[in-house]
């Protein structure tokens, strides 16, 4: 193996500053006994009984895991349960009048649902779906923005034991059609339209086009959101008419086997073609409930807010299923963080006295860019814990988040997981572990993961390699359970799952994520981690956000291009010198960027991930290809003209 194949990143991460969780937090934390790690390891896989015991089972499971050596795996064999019952009915005796959902809609529009109100609406809608013909093995596609009817429809499907297939509301008609067709879904729940940044989006037109495009016949339920006189036509039914017709109906929750599908979802489209993932009723629900409790420290009396969209896995797991399984109050926000003003989120945290707030690093970097004066306008003292998910969280953003949102006090959990994993696999436990800003944390108790080189051997501490998960986990999807997909049996025959993320692990077992494995940049035979370059650039004062890609270069093969979005009030020239200086210092002159391109924003998918493929195309002056997954396509023109002008 030549030196060019070796990752260039072998710098020590063990010198990271550590932050102890404050005593007041530990005292009240759901999980605060450090012995949890040893106990889970000793008792694996039985330890996961603790997660399953957070749920009510119609039939107890006979074992925890079948097939520990390799697929097919079966979590909680023999167990039967219903997810809607677990998220609603079982809470009624104790808290029927407690809020289950708090919804904040477009400019001042808001609605709340107690657990009893949620029970009634879910039952009525489940009865309506059944009358429309929805039955076993059907897939109901839900194409709704962040409105309460979205979790209602999901839970109504779960009640009937029917899989839902939520498609992010911002997706195009084509994307919806592909996802419906691949799921062979004959039912669609959508709306006439909705408001985004003050203007109406015509949702039903997109749904109509998708309906025409798919081969199967589709029955459509339309929720009236805009109050326009909607023309319904054949096979379209009005959501409110359906509810009225089934008011007071009660639908017996259908008992499901632990491994039965709860829902389908597609992975976010940062790379390649979207992949369908099916999650299970028992294993998934147990895993999201346990991580909601142990990592997000959610308590029934909390008001909890995850600012993701339910259209992504984060919203499924940590807006709907995890929080509701624990009987807490979960906030749904149908809006953007800077509309009408840049303090919108903090206004809501204050108004609802939010206890736990979970968002994405890209959002934190935006807050940082807008300035600390926005959160400073509000009383955020109700916050107890902050979390992030979706991308590596650099130390500077971590510190800013803790300081300006968390009052310098709240623990911050950087949680690593994927659509495929269903629930969090790597994070600190906020009531147990010290935190290391810029480092995600350890594999959770009960999760076995390590960092390996190309040959599959463990790398040394702090050396970069690929993260592999070496034992099954309850939230694993069907294709991994039955071994039909990406369970990689390597030459030694041991099962492992490859998330395709590069990472390093320090001597304490803490994992630093370095990006997707295909994100490395090879300059003159040396490999640099995209994420390492990016976090160096993002660590420079005045840089709000940065993306780094490799572009073709005559002499070095590849050259580094840095796309930088500056904080307000910073000049390009000073920043350029500071960025170069930081890279030279952190990595060396060989990593000095060929180009530093300043832009007001980076091209992002609708789930907030930077689309590096497009930046690579810009850097190489190539055709941009399909940009339909972008939230802000207009930014590409601006970036192209600034690279051309360099
Ligand atoms: C939940 C979600 C998964 C990919 C994953 C990784 C990146 C997620 C991260 C993180 C570093 C974290 N990712 N959390 N990278 N630190 N805390 O985001 O699912 O949309 O499927 O994306 O996101 O690269 O492989 P999904």
From TrEMBL:
Biased composition annotated in UniProt, kind: Basic and acidic residues: 9-18
Acetyl-coenzyme A synthetase N-terminal domain ranges (all copies): 35-87
Keywords: ATP-binding, Ligase, Nucleotide-binding
A Gene Ontology molecular function term of the record: ATP binding
Any one Gene Ontology BP term: acetyl-CoA biosynthetic process from acetate
Gene3D superfamilies, per the entry: 3.30.300.30, N-terminal domain of ligase-like
Annotated spans, Disordered: 1-23
Sequence ranges assigned to domain AMP-dependent synthetase/ligase in this UniProt record: 91-473
Domain AMP-binding enzyme C-terminal: 532-609
SUPFAM superfamilies recorded: Acetyl-CoA synthetase-like (SSF56801)
EC numbers for this chain: 6.2.1.1
Domain of life: Archaea
Family from the record: Belongs to the ATP-dependent AMP-binding enzyme family.
Annotated protein name in UniProt: Acetate--CoA ligase
Organism, scientific name: Haloarcula salina
Classification lineage: Archaea, Methanobacteriati, Methanobacteriota, Stenosarchaea group, Halobacteria
């Amino acid at each position: 193996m030549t030196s060019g194949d070796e990752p260039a990143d072998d710098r020590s991460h063990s010198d990271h500053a550590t932050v102890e969780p404050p005593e007041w937090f530990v005292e009240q934390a759901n999980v605060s006994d450090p012995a949890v790690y040893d106990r889970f390891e000793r008792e694996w896989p039985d330890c996961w009984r603790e997660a399953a015991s957070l749920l009510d089972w119609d039939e107890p499971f006979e074992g925890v895991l079948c097939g520990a050596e390799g697929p097919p795996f079966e979590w909680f064999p023999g167990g039967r349960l219903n997810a809607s019952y677990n998220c609603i009915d079982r809470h009624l005796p104790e808290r029927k009048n407690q809020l289950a959902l708090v919804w904040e809609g477009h400019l001042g529009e808001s609605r709340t649902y107690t657990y009893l109100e949620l029970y009634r609406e879910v039952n009525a809608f489940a009865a309506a779906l059944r009358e429309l013909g929805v039955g076993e093995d059907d897939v109901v596609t839900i194409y709704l923005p962040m409105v309460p009817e979205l979790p209602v429809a999901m839970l109504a499907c779960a009640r009937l034991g029917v899989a839902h297939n939520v498609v992010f509301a911002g997706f195009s008609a084509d994307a919806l059609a592909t996802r419906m067709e691949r799921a062979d879904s004959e039912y669609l729940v959508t709306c006439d339209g909705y408001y985004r940044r003050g203007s109406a989006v015509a949702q039903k037109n997109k749904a109509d086009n998708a309906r025409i495009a798919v081969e199967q016949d589709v029955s459509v339920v339309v929720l009236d959101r805009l109050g326009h006189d909607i023309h319904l036509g054949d096979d379209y039914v009005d959501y409110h008419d359906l509810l009225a017709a089934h008011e007071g109906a009660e639908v017996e929750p259908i008992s499901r086997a632990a491994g039965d599908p709860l829902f389908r979802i597609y992975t976010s489209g940062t790379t390649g073609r979207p992949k369908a993932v099916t999650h299970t009723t028992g294993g998934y629900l147990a895993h999201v409930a346990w991580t909601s409790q142990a990592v997000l420290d959610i308590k029934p009396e909390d008001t909890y807010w995850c600012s993701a969209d339910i259209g992504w896995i984060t919203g499924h797991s940590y807006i709907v299923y995890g929080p509701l399984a624990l009987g807490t109050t979960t906030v749904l926000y149908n809006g953007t963080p800077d509309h009408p003003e840049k303090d919108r989120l903090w206004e809501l945290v204050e108004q609802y006295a939010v206890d736990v707030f979970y968002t994405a690093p890209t959002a934190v970097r935006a807050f940082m860019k807008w300035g600390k004066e926005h959160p400073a306008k509000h009383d955020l003292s109700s916050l107890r814990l902050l979390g992030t998910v979706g991308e590596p969280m650099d130390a500077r953003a971590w510190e800013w988040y803790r300081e300006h949102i968390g009052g310098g006090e709240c623990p911050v959990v950087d949680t690593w997981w994927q659509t495929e994993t269903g629930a969090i696999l790597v994070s600190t436990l906020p009531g147990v572990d010290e935190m290391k800003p810029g480092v995600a944390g350890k594999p959770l108790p009960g999760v076995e993961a390590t960092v390996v080189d190309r040959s599959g051997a463990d790398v040394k501490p702090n050396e970069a390699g690929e993260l592999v998960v070496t034992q099954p986990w309850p939230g694993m999807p069907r294709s991994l359970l039955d071994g039909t997909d990406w369970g990689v049996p390597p030459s030694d025959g041991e099962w492992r799952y490859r998330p395709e993320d590069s990472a390093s692990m320090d001597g304490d077992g803490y994992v630093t994520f370095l990006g997707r494995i295909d994100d490395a940049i090879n300059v003159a035979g040396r490999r640099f981690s995209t994420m390492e370059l990016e976090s160096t650039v993002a660590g420079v004062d005045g840089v709000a956000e940065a993306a780094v890609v490799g572009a073709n270069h005559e002499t070095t093969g590849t050259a580094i291009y840095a796309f930088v979005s500056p904080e307000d009030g910073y000049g390009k020239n000073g920043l350029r010198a500071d960025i170069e200086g930081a890279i030279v210092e952190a990595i060396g002159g060989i990593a000095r960027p060929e180009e530093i391109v300043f832009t007001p924003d980076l091209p992002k998918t609708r789930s907030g991930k930077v689309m590096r493929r497009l930046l690579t195309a810009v850097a190489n002056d190539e055709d941009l290809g399909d940009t339909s997954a972008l939230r802000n396509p207009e930014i590409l023109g601006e970036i192209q003209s600034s690279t051309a002008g360099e």
